[in-house]
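Example A, followed by Example B.
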Amino acid sequence: MECSYFAAGVCRSCALLPVAYGDQLAAKQARVAAALAPVAPDVAWEEPVASAEAGFRNKAKMVVSGTVDAPVLGILDGGVGVDLQGCGLHTPGLAASLPVLARFVSTARLTPYSVSDRSGELKHLIVTESPDGELMVRFVLRSTEALARLRSRLPALLGELPIAVVSANVQPKHKAILEGPTEIPLYGDTLAMRINDLTLHLRPQSFFQTNTAVAAVLYRCASGLVEAAAPESVWDLYCGVGGFGLHVARPGRCVVGVEVSEQAIESARLSARELGVGGVSRWVVGDAAAWVSTSSAAGEGSTTGEGVPELVIVNPPRRGIGAELAGWLEGSGVQHLVYSSCNVDSLVRDLGAMPSFGAVSSRLLDMFPHTAHHEVLVLLTRH
């Protein structure tokens, strides 16, 4: 991928850009295979899943700087705004929306936040595009001072862009934090993310993979692993909006999804109803590690009445599942574990804490081209 920003030295986020994409993929494969070798010496590696080299990123997280009449959407470099509206990673719909949103910042008089002066209101613009070309637009503000202006100009923006959801997030702290806890809905409710043969629903504070095409392959691969094991009961921990659990929900199979985000669970429940699997799935707000111990003791989520499922899917953040959940899985009666990891180092640590499980197969999926980041899907079966 050619990038004028990288060539000019103003953005180095894609650190591997000078490396041919095939070599990037091979290096990632070698890295994750070497890391997993001590804890999974007999694992069978499947062919890596490649990504498009450009136009794959469905989410733009833009720092807003400059002035109200000349806003800059991009990043900060030494406190100075660098405009990245032409970033080649973004999907075409995102790329087309950013100049329109920059004009809206001016017409709505949303003064960009100045880090050095600690003044202004608009800190970030977070924009997500669905596979059908609809947008979710979030304005991260320092306070609610600009809400009236934003609301008054919003109808004009809705006339220019295919927007499904607009919200304002309030982040008052002078810290390098992307967003705050308060979300104020301004228009719409959910962004429909059509992926494979189902529709997931994304609300403003819910997580979704930023590479839609590779995420679709990830869900299909995981679903294939689950179908081969043919469990009657599945727990989907760190389930987000239900991507894994909804892909494997079937009549006769009990699926329970657990996620700390209430918005994400609301989305999963909506998707389950639309898919007609609400009767065989349950979606719970809670911390995965804390939930499993209490729920297994109560006999929840199992068709056998033994208090544990036959198969567990985990898709944790970069820190991994941690000692508490790994210890519970090790001592449980769970027979199969499907682990989707975005950090092979925490994955290795977690597998080391579960010696009763053996890694059967593994696959690298390149969610993040031109960076060292990676996604690894591993199937483990109890010895």
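Example B, a separate protein, is given below in the same form.
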Amino acid sequence: MRILTFTSLFPNTLQPDLAVFVYQRTVHLAQQPGSSVVVVAPVPYFPSWLPLSRWRTYSQIPHEENVGDLRVLHPRYPLLPRIMMPMHALLIVLGCLLPMIRLKKQFDFECIDAHFVYPDGFAAVLLGRILGVPVVVSARGSDINEYPSFYFIRPLIRWTLRNASGIVAVSEALRDKAVERGCPTEQVRAITNGIDPHLFGLMDRTEARRSLGLPDNAKIAVCVAALRPVKGHKLLIQAIPLVAKQNLPLRVYLVGEGPLRPELESLITELGLGGSVFLVGHKPNSELKAWFNAADVCCLTSEREGWPNVLSESLACGTPIVATRVGGIPEIIGSPELGILVERDRQSIADGLQAAFSRHWNRQQIAAHAVSRTWSVVAADVGAYLNECVEKWKSKRGKR
């Protein structure tokens, strides 16, 4: 089957770690027998001469490139951030329509595999109607959990959920939420994310710590997440003094970058945790294996989640989890042998960390569980569902 993957979040020359989970599913889908995939990853148009470094990156992304073995097109569309959010999807359609008409003549794709319900999914469903192909949209998390809270976007999300040929939810919890948002139950399929065993797996913990310059005798927790309020870093930091009362040689490493950094730095100083909590910044995907293996526990205290890949990656490295009971996290930690679920308050998080540090975990068993669901397995599930949706779409058209 010829598939067009449509997403505004995809790795590119300048952002190689952008939405790696979308890349992984797409490249493994392309490797399925009988499948071929081309990616359309639209980016905002930005004049290179304007002195705004944050947005100038977009002007430097090539109009077409190869990412791994995938052909990737980057059509431009007009966008004024925040101001035009309700118009975002229509502007994507405006920028992508002619390039996709040309692509349809070169690569006669049979379906569109879109990622994120809004704006990408809404735009993809409109483009699919114009081009006469079915569209399957993957719901990832914030597109279902957060965006419907915006008054002008809520009806666009509902329309997308009702008019796509199929919806993929990355967790059962997100599937239920999609149904609550208006998606017909029979139109949505839960297909979780996977693991790349070449990137994530067991290594000697002492070796991992030495490679990162971390102390051998400390109890180490790692949190891999963008420094944004929804990820709950402040709550995690506030829980550390409660764990420190147990006189553990505790070290917490926050791996990630984001707008919350100055506030977190101030909080660490205020609580006198400069020797216990460290902001180590963004680390490329290729370096995360060492961080997970170096840690005694991986912690995530999010307010909401879809399917946080970092937890599956931690488990693949044999490192247990302490995480809040939200979104798809209880599905990832489906057994007490994999980690500890906590409530979203300081004491519960502290108790969870203390229990995790005090327990002996079977790292081999944890890793074996996690790596059983590879991206190839995920891609096979997605490919089968795309075929199912295409056949249903053809059947409906044949009855008209």
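On Example B: Residues 234 and 264 are 7 Å apart (CA to CA).
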